[in-house]
Design a protein that fits this description.
The structure is a homodimer. By secondary structure, chain A is α/β, with parallel strands linked by helices. Chain A has two domains: 190 residues, inorganic pyrophosphatase (n-terminal core), CATH 3.90.1640; 122 residues, Diaminopimelate Epimerase, Chain A, domain 1 (Roll). Chain A is built from eleven helices and twelve strands. In chain A, the strands form two sheets. In chain A, strands 3-2-1-4-5-6 form a six-stranded parallel beta sheet. In chain A, helix 2 runs antiparallel to helix 4 and helix 3 packs antiparallel against helix 4. Chains A and B meet through helix 5, helix 6 and helix 7 of A and helix 5, helix 6 and helix 7 of B.
Chain lengths: 325, 325
């Protein structure tokens, strides 16, 4: 029995499920999860999305987002708990998960396979593609609300079809989601063109911190504790800022250092070359994909930055990539 | 006989053609034109892309870009000249076009239909979709080089599948182009992630000029003559900067004013609401699409900006859109 078939068999036998994703949930976690919740409800399963961090503002337009239960613990007696896009069981930040039958649906190659049923497909650009494939087996017809959720999952995890995970299948599914009533421009507007003015002010601050390494192969930006406090006060998210250093010609690893003023410094990494940033982040207890990962490192902003850059300079030297032009 | 059939019939009867597009050619003009040149060559037609402005750096990765003839006049005796994405005959900036049989292939609704054969399809997200449809009729098999050119045409004219012109057909074609060997991430990297450091410095300057109108419905940025001279010296293009004011929640019309230090001020307009910016730009001799247009206006930067904003405030009042929240 394939991993997907095991999921189908289980979902055909349950009466109630909780669906969850990782902390600070993203478009794939929320879109895939909300699509699955709606699909299960349509076939009579009582399904609820539970999120420790609730739904970030950027994703509140998703159909079903209003019904997400914000909670750090599960209390009801669900027949199963489905973890979406969680390479490890602790990622949702939910206590007492051990009391439930767990189903792990993910596309991270480095998945710990911690659940009773594990369906892991690293070829999928987004878990949204996997949920799309699940619908016929569940006997669920694609409708507009499911389509908008799955489209959002795919758009966010492919960077609007720009990342190397985008495949022929990705576009085939996108075409089908449009036929079901999803409007790409409406999703793009909600995701990317409904920004507070403060977001652009923050972008300007971040660009002011941009440094291109003399080698030309590393570039980074940073926000200090004051910038981060300001961004929180204005409810501005910062996750895409790392794309600015990433966009520079010749850059192989781009970084974004974020000092929250308390606790460790958050480091986002993007690779466009041979450096596996998931493996790099794992050295600090972080994770992600080969080309997009993150970790948190204890120390002052300057110290963390200098330490990480020194390690990456060494790693880039070791991989003997093309030098500066 | 449909307009498309007329084009097919003509192309089946010629031995030599020049293909051209508008001044400051974009991804659709160049990608569609280079795809057509390659397609025609493969069936024995001597075809050449001629561009008054040559090929901007951003598009030099396109297969066939090296063979583009940079010239402001046609000299050879072509059997026909094909104008791609030119709503008027003067757009290519080529002299002596009247000596040739002209073919007009465009997707602008406001096309002047100035040619012997006019194929205008405003439903096409990009002319690239029209050229894709033409290939089977020309007896041309899709190959990787054609696919990369057409994919670039579609990606640039849909804003990476974010604009409202993106359709089910757009994604179907994208899927087929991937099957022919186009790699979306390679195209995206060439288009958007191969920027000079100066581009980010210019973005920071432009963000420093950002103003959100008190109504919340207009936002704009501007570059003065010194900024523009700096951007030219660093070979940085500025066309996407208008997307920053466009990204602000509630903004209905976004503008970018560019003072080149000589001649008229260049104004780029983007609409996300009911204002038809192509019609607005036409009042100043400009043009474009309903949601993306441009024009050039004689005057000092301050005067031009204030005049255009006053007109737009009046127009927004007249359309009685939603006021500020």
């Amino acid at each position: 029995m394939s991993e997907q078939d095991e999921v189908v068999a289980l979902l055909g036998s349950v009466r109630s499920v909780a669906v969850t994703s990782h902390l600070a949930p993203d478009g794939d976690g929320l879109g895939s999860g909300l699509a699955l919740v709606r699909a299960l409800k349509s076939v009579g399963v009582a399904a609820r999305f539970v999120s420790t961090d609730g739904v970030p503002r950027r994703y509140r337009f998703l159909p079903g987002a209003d019904d997400v239960l914000r909670a750090a613990a599960l209390v009801e007696p669900y027949d199963a708990v489905i973890l979406i896009e969680c390479p490890e069981r602790h990622r949702p930040g939910l206590s007492d998960l051990d009391r439930y039958r767990l189903v792990n649906i993910d596309h991270h190659a480095l998945n710990a396979r911690y659940a009773a049923i594990n369906w892991v497909d690293p070829r999928a650009a987004a878990v949204g593609e996997m949920i799309y494939d699940l619908l016929p087996a569940l006997g669920v017809a694609l409708d507009r609300d499911i389509a908008v959720n799955l489209y959002t999952a795919i758009v966010t995890d492919t960077g609007s079809f720009r990342y190397s995970n985008t495949t022929h299948r990705t576009f085939e599914i996108a075409a089908a989601l449009l036929s079901a009533g999803c409007q790409p421009a409406a999703v793009a507007t909600a995701l990317y063109e409904d920004e507070p003015l403060a977001r652009l002010e923050l972008t300007r601050k971040a660009l002011g911190s941009l440094v291109l390494d003399p080698s030309g192969r590393l570039a980074w930006i940073e926000l200090d504790a004051a910038d981060v406090a300001w961004s929180l006060a204005h409810d501005v998210d910062t996750e895409d800022l790392v794309n600015y250093p990433r966009s520079i010609a010749g850059v192989e690893v781009a970084l974004f250092f974020k000092d929250r003023g308390h606790g460790p410094v958050k480091v986002s990494l993007r690779s466009r070359g041979r450096v596996d940033v998931a493996a790099f982040a794992a050295r600090f207890g972080g994770g992600g994909h080969k080309q997009a990962a993150g970790c948190s490192i204890t120390g002052k902003l300057d110290e963390v930055r200098d330490r990480v850059l020194a390690m990456l300079r060494e790693e880039l030297g070791a991989t003997a990539g093309p030098g500066p032009a």
